[in-house]
Amino acid sequence: MLEIARPSTITLVKGAPGAGKTTLVLKSLIDVEKSYFVSYNETIDSLLQKMERLGIKNNGHIELVRGLSGTGGALNKQTSEIISQMQKGAAVVIDSIDAMLEGVKSDFGMRTLLQVIYSSAKQHNASLILITEGSMALSERLSYISDIIINVELEIKEEKIIRYAEIEKDRDRMIAKQRYNFTFEQGASIFDGSIGAINDIAGYEPVRFPDEIKIGDNNEYLGRILFILDHRTPAIFSYYMRMLIVSHFINRGFQVLLYLRPDEDNMSVMKDIKKLTGLENPEIFVFKTSEEAENRKAIEQYESILSNKKTLHIYDALSNEALYMRDPVQYEDVVRVFTSAQSRQKATVIGFGYNWLKTLDVQKKYASIIYVTYVYDNDVFLRGIRPSTPAYHVKIDGEMKKLSMKFTRIT
C-alpha cells in the first residue's frame, strides 16, 4: 500500500487532522533514492522525531524544508524550487497543498499553479505526493489530476484510537477498496482488514433478515440478487456481510459456491467460515475466477452433486473487473451464459460490488433483485430498488467474539 512514490505519478493523501497522513508518507519514502519534503504544517524537528520513531535513518536521501507561506514572490520561489527538485529526479512531497495554496484567492490562479506543478512532474518523470485535509472544492480538483488517492482516517472505539487507510484510486492497478489498519505503537505497522487480523471470531448470531429483504428461504428460488455498495462503504463491511450470508445459508442446508476477490485467499476465508458455521467441513467450494484449472476442478465436483442440493452462488464483481476491461462484450456473454445455466439449476445467486465497478453495468441487467447501500456520517443504510423496499440501518457487530448483523427500519 505504501508503494506510492512512483515515477510520473501524482499521489493524493487525504484525511482528517491527526489521522497519520504525514507519518504514512514518511514511511513510504524509506526506500526512495532522493526525496524533497516541503512542510507547511510541522517543524523540521517534529518531522525528525517522527522519522526516528519510524526507524528512518536520514542519510541525506530525504531533504526536509519549511514551506514558504504567502503569495506573490514567496509562492513563486517555492514553486520554482519544487520544479527544480523534480528536474533533479527527487520525489516531492507537499504537506499540505492546502497551506501552500492558502493565499491564492482566484480559481484561475489556483488552477494554473496546479497545472504547472502537475505538468512538471509528468514532464520530468518525477513523483509528486500531495497531502490535503482541505475543502471539498480543492479535494475534487486534486482528485481529478491525481493518479493515486489514499484516504487516511481515524475512529475512537472503546477509548482506543483505530487508524486506517483505503486506496480510493490507482490508475496503474486494479484496486480492491480494502481497508488497511495501522498502528504507531512500534513504528508504523500496517495490516489488512480481514477478520483474522482484527478479531478472533468464535461464532455468529443467526442472521435475521427483515421480511422485505428477500435473501432466500428453504425452498425458495430468487434468481440473481445484487448488492450495489456505496463507494464509501468500508471494505470490511462488505467482507463481513458476505461471510455472514455464507454462514447463514450453509447452516440452513445450502451448498455454497463462493467466488473470492483478487485480494482474498482460500485458507483465511475458509478459516473464518469454519469459525462462523461451527463446522469442520462446511459444504462450500471456494475459488478465484482467475485460477482456471482450480475453477474447472471445483465446478466438476460441484456439478456432480448439484442435482439434489439447494445451491447458492456468491460472488464479488471485482473478481471479473479485469475481464470486463479487456473485453466488455466477452464479459457480458459470460454473464449471460452463467445466468442461463444457474436459472436451469434453480440456483440463487448473490453478488456484491462497489458502485464504481464497470462490471455492475452488466450485472444490473441480469439481476432480478437489487439492493443499494449508502453511507451517511459513517453509518451504512440499505434499501431495495428492485423491488422498492424501506430503508434499513445495517449494523455489523464483531464484539464479544461473536459476529452479528442487525437491521433497523428507518421510519
Verbal overview:
- With 411 residues, the chain is α/β, with parallel strands linked by helices.
- The protein is 34% helix and 29% strand.
- It contains 13 helices and 19 strands.
- It has helices at 21-28, 44-54, 73-87, 97-100, 107-123, 136-145, 195-198, 235-250, 266-277, 292-304, 321-326, 328-344, 359-366, and strands spanning 9-15, 35-39, 62-66, 91-95, 127-132, 148-157, 160-170, 179-183, 189-192, 203-204, 224-229, 255-259, 284-287, 311-316, 348-354, 369-376, 379-386, 392-397, 402-409.
- Strands 10-19-18-17-16-11-15-14-12-13 form a ten-stranded mixed beta sheet, sandwiched between helices.
- Helix 2 links the parallel strand 2 and strand 3 (62-66).
- Helix 3 runs parallel beside helix 5.
- The longest helix is centred in the N-terminal third of the chain and has 17 residues, at 107-123.
In short:
The chain is an alpha/beta fold and 411 residues long. It has two domains: 9-192, P-loop containing nucleotide triphosphate hydrolases (Rossmann fold), CATH 3.40.50.300; 199-409, Rossmann fold (3-Layer(aba) Sandwich), CATH 3.40.50.300.
Q: What is the CATH topology of the largest domain? A: Rossmann fold
The CATH class label of the largest domain is Alpha Beta
General shape: elongated
Rounded mean pLDDT is 81
Report the radius of gyration as a whole number of Å: 24 Å
- Strand order, main sheet: write it out: 10-19-18-17-16-11-15-14-12-13
Name given to the CATH homologous superfamily of the largest domain: P-loop containing nucleotide triphosphate hydrolases
Q: Structural class, please? A: alpha/beta
Question: What is the tally of beta strands?
Answer: 19
In this structure, how is the largest beta sheet organized? 10 strands, mixed
The number of distinct helices, counting runs of at least 4 residues, comes to 13
Helicity range of the residues?
25-40%
Give the tally of structural domains.
Answer: 2
Distance between the termini: 41 Å
Low-confidence stretches: 192-199
State which percent range the strand residues make up: 25-35%
CATH architecture annotation of the largest domain: 3-Layer(aba) Sandwich
